[in-house]
Specification:
The complex is a heterodimer of chains A (316) and B (293).
Chain A: E1 5-14, E2 17-27, E3 31-35, H1 42-50, E4 57-62, E5 65-66, H2 71-75, E6 78-81, H3 93-103, H4 108-121, H5 137-149, E7 155-159, H6 167-182, E8 187-191, H7 195-201, E9 204-209, E10 212-218, H8 219-225, E11 228-235, H9 238-248, E12 251-254, E13 259-264, H10 270-279, E14 283-290, H11 294-315
Parallel strand pairs in A: 3-8, 3-9, 6-7, 7-8
Antiparallel strand pairs in A: 1-2, 1-4, 4-5, 9-10, 11-13, 11-14, 12-13
Helix pairs in contact in A: 3-4, 4-5
Chain B: H1 24-35, H2 37-46, H3 48-58, H4 63-73, H5 85-107, H6 110-117, H7 121-125, H8 131-149, H9 151-165, H10 169-172, H11 174-201, H12 205-230, H13 240-252, H14 263-284
Classes of the chains: A alpha/beta (316), B mainly alpha (293).
């Protein structure tokens, strides 16, 4: 698969603060999630790719074009939905979206037509002649999506798209992102600190921490690997039970004297756990079964980065 | 993506040329201006002086009609019709200067502040549209509107006079036409840049208007104090209005009596103001402000 975005030791500094530090990687998914805690550099990465901030070292390429030299051509391919409220006071949604379409190069007639279509698509058809300052937060989010897609971009940057949305609107936003992704014409980058959003919309995730890439994973492959995580709550001698399931080949961790977390190997079935428990007269009072979730991937990435930092500090 | 289908579809239609996209901004802005009744009426009022001047040019060349009217009124053709062209066109510029200043005062402060107040700049700059094109587009709003009440009617009056006078009048007075054109363009450039800079730094429109007003009033006051305390005329370099009038007076070769500052210094003063405004705009007009530490 050809890379959508190639990061080549990309670095960004604001004064003496390093915001992005030697980012390296090749992002090729149809829909890529940018994950990370607050201040990890997700938004700065999007802004740098858009040319808002100049890189202090390295570069990045979008569809093979260098952000240092081809900024204008790159922006012609991108639709951007900013995180913060962005609108022009006194302008109705349809005029704003039309204006943005015209600035992207659409002739006035087509821009007007696409503006109406985009606003209907995001569910603002009835409210499209209202001035945007009268919109609710959720409506403003939808209008921002409309202006991002009105010119039919090849790459869509969505910065915290579900911010401030109530559950039905959030559901609708996620569905729209999935629909746009599934057309196959657009690559999508979703920056979010909400793991659930990324899990539902993306097939790859780039995890950032303190301006560095800590993990880039293919969520589809992770899902296909389908490691079975099990959490068991028992009544009885927990340690003996743990020892027995260890003999079966399960990786386990004792969370306390009643709870065990384990990874179930492919060949072992849950029935065998009950058999071991019965043989040792231990009651299994609760059993939670789940796949390796994005949350696990994210937490592992954060932990492994912390331990790597501790080791580096110890070594120094 | 027909409206009734409500599905997403990419765009594959025609594209406008990149070079002319900045004109989208003045088109939208001027349409908004013309939709405001007050501004529309004001623009109409701005045309009263050029219409009056056109009558003053036209009437002497239709002496029979004029003579009949004036005889019925009991007088002859007054001497003010034997005017000096330089004085006439320079005087025409005085009321238009105030009309144009007030127009800039009404429209200029809202141009960028409206976008900055609600973080609209990232929407512009995430497109194939850079901030210099943005500034050019915003400048064109004022350039087009102010031109409509300043040098365009001035030039039309000049051509009307040349047509009616005939002979070699046009070539003999070409310098006046050129002086008028250059004078107005200097005014437009200075006023546009100052109002854009104020608009970029002050997000609240009424305060931006006050700021624009104070630049001229406070600048003039400061210049006056400098001139008085230091017994010099160089303090006038801080008075933008005076400097514009000095340049106009020298270009028309009509003494203004405002300042003894030489033409070169007045030009330099206005050029410095323009450069400062451009630097301020370059610093402020960005998609996002970055706090550096």
């Amino acid at each position: 698969m050809t890379a959508v975005i190639e990061l080549d030791r990309l670095g960004v500094r604001f004064g003496r603060r390093t915001i992005l530090n030697d980012l390296q990687g090749s992002l090729a998914g149809r829909s890529i999630g940018l994950l990370g805690p607050n201040g990890a550099g997700k938004t700065t990465l999007l802004h740098t790719l858009l040319g808002f901030h100049p890189p202090c070292n390295g570069t990045a390429r979008i569809f093979g074009r260098d952000i240092r030299t081809d900024g204008q051509a790159i922006r012609a391919l991108i639709g951007y939905m900013p995180e913060r409220d962005s609108f022009i006071a006194g302008l109705s949604a349809v005029r704003l979206v039309r204006l943005m379409a015209e600035l992207s190069g659409l002739p006035p007639k087509q821009a007007l037509e696409r503006a109406h279509e985009a606003l209907f698509y995001v569910g603002l058809g009835e409210a499209r002649y209202r001035e945007m300052q009268t919109y609710s937060l959720g409506m403003k989010q939808m209008a921002k999506l409309a202006q991002a897609i009105v010119h039919g971009p090849k790459l869509l940057f969505l910065d915290e798209p579900t911010n401030g949305l109530d559950p039905p609107h959030r559901r609708r936003m996620i569905e729209m992102i999935q629909e746009i992704r599934d057309t196959g014409d657009v690559n999508i980058i979703v920056s979010s600190h909400l793991l659930r959003d990324v899990d539902e919309c993306c097939d790859e995730a780039l995890i950032l921490k303190e301006g560095r890439v800590v993990q880039y994973c293919n969520l589809e492959e992770e899902r296909k690997a389908n490691r079975k995580f099990i959490e068991i709550e028992t009544h009885g001698d927990n340690a003996v039970f743990a020892e027995e399931i260890g003999k079966l080949g399960c990786e386990y961790a004792l969370l306390n004297n009643r709870r065990i977390k384990m990874v179930l190997p492919e060949k072992i079935e849950i029935r065998q756990l009950y058999e071991v428990a019965a043989a040792r007269e231990i009651q299994i009072r609760r059993l939670d079964y789940k796949r390796d979730s994005l949350q696990d991937i994210f937490l592992k990435a954060m932990e492994s980065d912390n331990s790597a930092q501790r080791q580096a500090a110890g070594g120094a | 993506m027909a409206v009734y289908e409500r599905t997403y579809r990419p765009y594959s239609g025609p594209q406008t040329p990149e070079r002319s996209r900045f004109l989208v901004l003045p088109r939208y802005a001027i349409r908004e201006v013309l939709r405001t009744r007050m501004l529309f009426a004001y623009l109409m009022a701005c045309m009263l002086v050029p219409l009056g001047c056109a009558a003053l040019i036209y009437l002497p060349y239709n002496a029979t009609f004029l003579k009949t009217v004036l005889e019925q009124l009991g007088g002859g053709i007054p001497t003010f019709f034997d005017w000096n062209a330089a004085h006439f066109f320079r005087r025409f510029m005085i009321p238009q200067f105030f009309f144009a200043f007030f127009l800039v005062f009404l429209i200029g402060p809202a141009l960028i502040s409206a976008d900055m107040r609600n973080n609209a700049l990232p929407l512009y700059f995430s497109r194939p549209f850079n901030r210099w094109e943005y500034l050019l587009g915003k400048s064109f709003v004022l350039v087009l509107l102010v031109s409509g009440i300043t040098w365009i009617p001035g030039l039309m009056l000049f051509l009307l006079k040349a047509y009616l006078a005939g002979g070699g009048w046009f070539m003999d007075n070409l310098r006046i036409g050129a002086a008028m054109l250059v004078s107005w363009w200097i005014f437009i450039a200075v006023m546009t840049l100052i109002s854009l800079a104020v608009s970029a730094y002050v997000k609240w429109k009424p305060v931006a208007r006050l700021g624009l007003f104070f630049i001229f009033v406070v600048g003039g006051g400061f210049a006056g104090i400098l001139n008085l305390t230091l017994r010099t005329h160089w303090g006038s370099l801080f008075n933008i209005g005076d400097m514009i009038r000095v340049v106009w007076g020298k270009l028309f070769d009509v003494p203004e009596g405002v300042s003894e500052v030489p033409l070169g210094a007045a030009f330099a003063s206005l050029a410095v103001v323009c450069v400062i405004c451009i630097l301020l705009l370059q610093r402020k007009v960005r998609a996002y402000e970055v706090v550096r530490s």
